[in-house]
Give the backbone structure.
Amino acid sequence: MNVSRIPRQPKRTALAGGLEIPRIVTGLWQVADMERGGRPLDRDAGADALADYAQSGFDAFDMADHYGSAELIAGRLLERPAEEGGSRPKIFTKWVPEPAAMTAGAVRAGVEERLERLGVDCIDLLQFHWWRFEHPGYIDAMIELDRLRREGLIAQLGVTNFDTNHLRLLVHHGIPVVSNQVSFSVLDRRAAGEMSAFCVENNVRLLAYGSLCGGFLSERWLGRAEPGAGEADDWSKMKYRRFIEAAGGWRIFQEILGALERIGSKHGASLANVAARWVLDHPAVAAIIVGARLGEREHRDDNLAVFGLSLDDEDRERIAAAAGEATPLPGDCGDEYRQQPYLTASGDLSHHLSGLQVTPPRDSVPGQSGRLNVGSGTGWERICGYSRAVRVGNRILVSGTTATHTDGSAICAEDAAGQATYALDKIAASISSLGGSLTDVVRTRIYITDESDWEPVARVHGRYFRRIRPANTLVTVSSLVGGYLVEIEAEAILPPS
């Protein structure tokens, strides 16, 4: 690469409103890994390292409530006066709450803790993560977060690891989500499909992490044997080794590395530059997040070279051919946090997911020892004499289900696909509370009021049941009680115990 083409500062983009950021954001997940032994990093030394990044133009930092002392280190940086003519670094943090009711008080407490740790009056970008969508508390949380945004405690509101269905639900329910942080790399191309299409159409930007697969997408690993015990044992490497295995293994990964290296040699760029540039070229992507191990390793100069690199059609075709040999990662963005295979550092998320099991009130029927009813807790069930779901033996039947939230309000009043998503989550929760899961569903029935909604609703149904494929009927009706656009019912048969 011609050195004269490498800019002195990273290219920038407007994420939303007045929030301008570099197209490479510095991620601080590694702080938690560096503090694994229980000894926190020196905050002043950490702030010095962040200041070096900011001085080079990489002045946006991504962190979370569970990234060790990352927020405290960033807060120490923000205590320092800005250089003359300079601007304050941009702080993205995440709130990942423990399972609990998302009351106004709980949400405010979560945000105020972030503000206190950072030492600021307003968070530039607050990103929300939710572990299990069958629990509808995420909607309550996002509504409250939006209230705090209007109050001035949050400048912009984002989410992290939301799939397309649930991102659509939030956006079409009126929540002003400006970004979704998801895994996106030549190895994990899930975000390039429906997620990107939705984001471009609805002005939501992607913040892509894992674009360098925790450092595996570099010359260091080209031609190397698969790492053994102790060679790649930081949390980032542990996580992305699972991605490599899910994509077909080390041999396939070496072929991808080889293709990226040949493209880099052609342009005089590093293998990592090519991998980063490929993700940045996607129109939905605002920025990629590249992790930093403060005080140990920094790659600012190499990261700057990304902005002097342009991929041509031949390069993109070569990447597509190499990546096409890999096994596509299953599902949609974020699925690795909610269902197997859990592509995380630990590979086990039971400590999060078990706590979010939805357990609606259950009751037995007098004289019928083999029957259980489960309700939603609404008054209508007793008035009208029905249950949300009934289990008799190994059979579960779920009543017609609409997108009625726990407070009685309608979710996505004008979007059939959003309503279908909410209804199917409610059905999944009902079946789960009776000992089953969506994999046990053998029949679904869908009622819609507008024939033109059949395809978006059917596509949502397909994302839940593509591998299960129950019997299904979809019909158009003149209207549904409550003015809903969609109503869905289901039947499940559990395997013999």
